[in-house]
Specification:
Rossmann fold, 8 helices, Adenylate kinase, 5-stranded parallel β-sheet, alpha/beta, binds zinc ion, cytoplasm, single chain
């Protein structure tokens, strides 16, 4: 199975990517992992990417695409893969389609984690981080009434990333960038949405159910 996983920040995409890939016995390929592997492995593409990153510039699309192509050419990706973090936009989706066609294959499915915005805000904005041990607590899920870490007694604070206005802005940016990609895959008739609310195992269960008809 060749699949792409998309989902907004706070939908637990990284965790789901891992579980779904492991359930399907396919490699999880995230752009973050590919970048790190190329940079630490000192590949030509890694060196090139590092030059941009060291200058504080964005790594150009061509470099990312070349890294994805290399990764998809590896042995373990020949019988399937789960892509996480790529493609990010319609031009990248078109390039991926062409690239896979050259390999003689195609995407089977694009799985979209669907969440309610207010649910994401509740999930992220309720997080409190321990200033001493770094452990994360949740005001609702851990029934945290005080601002004290139960593990070490340190004081808890809300990270800037978890502030409601930051979360809402990230969601807006995501919707803006991803909406055209979702439309693209809906038009290709390979888009499947999965409700990503609730406990991790339940979401994985729903994802596997949604994928079942496509598992050959
Ligand atoms: Zn602590």
């Amino acid at each position: 199975m060749r699949l792409v996983l998309v989902g907004p920040p706070g939908a637990g995409k990284g965790t789901q990517a891992q579980y779904i890939a492991s359930n399907l016995s396919i490699p999880k390929i995230s752009t973050g992992d590919i970048f790190r592997a190329n940079v630490s492995g000192g590949t030509e593409l890694g060196k090139l990417a590092k030059e941009y990153m060291d200058r504080g510039d964005l790594v150009p699309d061509e470099v990312t695409i070349a890294m994805v192509r290399d990764r998809l050419s590896e042995d373990d990706a020949q019988d399937g893969f789960l892509l996480d973090g790529f493609p990010r936009n319609v031009p990248q989706a078109e390039i991926l389609k062409k690239m896979l066609a050259e390999f003689g294959v195609a995407l089977d499915i694009v799985l979209e984690l669907v969440v309610d915005e207010d649910e994401v805000v509740r999930r992220l904005a309720g997080r409190r981080t321990c200033s001493q041990c770094g452990r994360i607590w949740h005001v609702d899920f851990d029934d945290k009434k005080d601002d004290v870490c139960d593990a070490c007694g340190g004081s808890l604070y809300q990270r800037d990333d978890d502030k409601e206005e930051t979360v809402r802005r990230r969601l807006e940016v995501y919707q803006e960038q991803t909406a055209p990609l979702i439309t693209f895959y809906a038009d290709e008739e390979i888009l499947v949405g999965v409700d990503a609310a609730g406990p991790v195992e339940e979401v994985t269960g729903r994802a596997m159910e949604a994928l079942a008809p496509y598992i050959g």
